[in-house]
């Protein structure tokens, strides 16, 4: 007997997304859907949780925890789900949420699946999909323990309204003193682009030989009204582009309509970040490059010849 | 550290979409190498001892030699057929028991995730079992006395945090560039201490680990269904670019 679903996200946007999926599962399994509200919110925000399907909003006031770190988050989720609390815990898999998921699962003696990309009910089971083997495969898994912890990859589902008459419950929880002291939090330097919401994404990899050559890529990206993204090497190792633009398992996961991958070999750690593109185009001189296996269109050729020609052609379309 | 198969070499069976893993070389994951490198750097600066700990199959001892060659002082491996199929919960339990057997520690360094499954749960679960704090996604680390100061990489921001040892730290690949082992070290590595334990050495009941004890069960693990068009142009640049532009216009990517 499962006693409910609890959704947790440190951002309201994330909570609404998870509530949408939670509502679908709760309806199928005939369970109550609650959401934990991490910190003080205005009435309108709490109401939005109900509009997206929550039947209960469990509000944890800021005064009880100060800043939210993984240990505090774990305490909050453990106290809300232990014993008779909800059995299925859906957590936004931000870095904070992902760390917390593992901790709270261990404290609850529960099975945990990280970075889920799909959840569905099959018979009596909740089947959860996630990438495995570095993104080569999608693994479908079930959790056998009564308590089930799932962290869900951000932006996996689209939030949709499903209004419920919800009730607000203020929680007064036992939260342990902090063991990690936050000295400073600063925004990363960079252009703060949001490549995750770009409709067209041009991604570049190690096939680019010099930093100056990025000018050409920026030009192409502007012509296609897109944003520029890159592999880990170009941002973390070479520092040619800011980390806001890094695509892949440890960077951004993008869902553009169109992706053009240039000089990207297609290592799986990167391609998980573009796999959900509607259309993938690859330009690479190596015919055997794995990127071609996941492409809709491709050109086998030297990007230093292909890209200038491509720019020229696109420009001529406009005239 | 976790032994993983070389992910670049995985082939997918065309008819069943199953991955073929037999005969693939096994290695340590990239993030795990960053964790080891950081441990070795700390020892070089502050003295101490670096122990590599890993749970895995029979081939593990060869992989561990590489870690010893790149600077670890000793290695402890848990090799037991009963561990086969363990999920993260069961693996974390095994690792935590092994850590208790190794004895007092200042730091447990792990990678931000394994390169194959990237669940990132092991550090969290070990911290919880051993009741120590954990600082995750660390890209800069310094130590003064019994305090660590770390720069954490969280989405869009960096956090500077301080915490008291002992604790668990997970590192990102930005923290360092793992060194390669010089040949002389590779030869010397086999003379470094390598302890091999079974579950009974750790006092773990076989019913607590392995496939049957795991909370997470895999129903299927297949390559995603490919619905890509796979139209690849080769040859003259003018011609191929022309064809691509036509295709992109048809798809609506170009106006």
Description:
The complex is a heterodimer of chains A (319) and B (255). Chain A is of the alpha/beta class. Chain A has eight helices and 16 strands. Chain A has two domains: 5-170, HUPs (Rossmann fold), CATH 3.40.50; 195-318, TPP-binding domain (Rossmann fold, 3-Layer(aba) Sandwich), CATH 3.40.50. In chain A, strand 6 and strand 7 (125-132) form a beta hairpin. The radius of gyration of chain A is 22 Å and the shape is elongated. The mean pLDDT of chain A is 93. Chain B is of the alpha/beta class and 255 residues long. Chain B contains six helices and 14 strands. In chain B, the strands form four sheets. Chain B has a five-stranded mixed beta sheet with strand order 7-11-8-9-10, sandwiched between helices. In chain B, strands 5-6-12 form a three-stranded parallel beta sheet, sandwiched between helices. Chain B has a two-stranded antiparallel ribbon with strand order 1-4. In chain B, strand 5 (51-56), helix 2 (60-69) and strand 6 form a beta-alpha-beta unit. Classes of the chains: A alpha/beta (319), B alpha/beta (255). At the A-B interface, helix 3, helix 4, strand 5, strand 7 and strand 8 of A face helix 3, helix 4, strand 8, strand 9 and strand 10 of B.
List keywords for this structure.
heterodimer; A: about 325 residues; alpha/beta; Rossmann fold; 2 domains; seven-stranded parallel β-sheet; five-stranded parallel β-sheet; 16 strands; about 30% helix; elongated; B: about 260 residues; five-stranded mixed β-sheet; three-stranded parallel β-sheet; 6 helices; about 30% strand; globular
């Amino acid at each position: 007997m499962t006693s409910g679903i609890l959704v947790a996200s440190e951002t309201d946007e994330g909570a609404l997304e998870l509530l949408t999926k939670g509502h679908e599962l709760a309806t199928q399994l005939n369970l109550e859907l609650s959401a934990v509200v991490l910190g003080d919110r205005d009435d309108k925000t709490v109401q939005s949780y109900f509009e997206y399907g929550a039947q209960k909003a469990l509000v944890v006031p800021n005064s009880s925890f100060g800043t939210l770190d993984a240990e505090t988050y774990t305490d909050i989720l453990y106290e809300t789900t232990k014993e008779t609390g909800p059995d299925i815990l859906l957590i936004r898999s931000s870095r904070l949420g992902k760390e917390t998921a593992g901790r709270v699962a261990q404290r609850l003696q529960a099975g945990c699946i990280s970075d889920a990309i799909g959840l569905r009910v099959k018979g009596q089971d909740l089947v959860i999909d996630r990438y495995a083997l570095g993104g080569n495969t999608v693994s479908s898994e079930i959790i056998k323990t009564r308590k089930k912890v799932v962290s869900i990859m951000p932006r996996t589902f689209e939030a949709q309204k499903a209004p419920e008459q919800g009730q607000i419950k203020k929680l007064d929880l036992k939260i342990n003193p902090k063991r990690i002291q936050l000295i400073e939090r600063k925004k990363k330097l960079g252009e703060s682009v949001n490549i995750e919401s770009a409709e067209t994404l041009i991604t570049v990899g190690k096939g680019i030989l010099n930093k100056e050559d990025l000018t050409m890529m920026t030009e192409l990206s502007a012509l296609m009204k897109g944003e520029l993204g890159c592999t880990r090497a170009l941002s973390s190792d070479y520092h040619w582009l800011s980390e806001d633009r890094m695509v892949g398992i440890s960077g951004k996961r993008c869902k553009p309509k169109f992706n053009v991958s240039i000089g990207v070999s297609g290592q799986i750690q990167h391609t998980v970040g573009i796999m959900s593109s509607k259309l993938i185009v690859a330009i690479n001189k190596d015919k055997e490059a794995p990127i071609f296996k996941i492409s809709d269109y491709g050109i086998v050729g030297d990007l230093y010849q292909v890209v200038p020609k491509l720019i020229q052609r696109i420009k001529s379309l406009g005239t | 550290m976790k032994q993983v198969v070389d992910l670049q070499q995985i082939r997918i069976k065309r008819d069943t979409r199953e991955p073929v893993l037999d005969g693939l070389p096994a290695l340590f994951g990239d993030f795990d190498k960053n964790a080891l490198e950081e441990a070795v750097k700390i020892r070089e600066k502050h003295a101490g001892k670096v122990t590599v700990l890993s749970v895995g199959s029979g081939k593990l001892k060869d992989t561990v030699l590489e870690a010893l060659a790149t600077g670890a002082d000793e290695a402890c491996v848990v090799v037991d057929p009963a561990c086969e199929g363990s999920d993260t919960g069961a693996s974390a339990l095994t690792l935590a028991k092994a850590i208790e057997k190794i004895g007092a520690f200042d730091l447990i360094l792990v990678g931000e995730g394994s390169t194959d499954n990237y669940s990132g749960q092991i550090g969290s679960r070990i911290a919880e079992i051993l009741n120590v704090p954990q600082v995750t996604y660390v890209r800069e680390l310094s130590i003064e006395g019994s305090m660590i100061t770390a720069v954490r990489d969280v989405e869009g921001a960096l956090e500077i945090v301080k915490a008291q040892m002992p604790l668990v730290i997970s590192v990102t690949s930005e923290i360092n560039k793992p060194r390669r082992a010089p040949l002389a070290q590779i030869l010397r590595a086999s003379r470094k201490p390598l302890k091999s334990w079974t579950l009974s050495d750790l006092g773990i009941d076989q019913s607590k680990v392995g496939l049957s004890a795991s909370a997470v069960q895999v129903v299927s693990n297949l390559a995603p269904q490919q619905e890509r068009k796979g139209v690849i142009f080769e040859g003259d640049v003018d011609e191929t670019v022309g064809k691509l532009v036509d295709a992109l216009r048809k798809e609506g990517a170009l106006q």
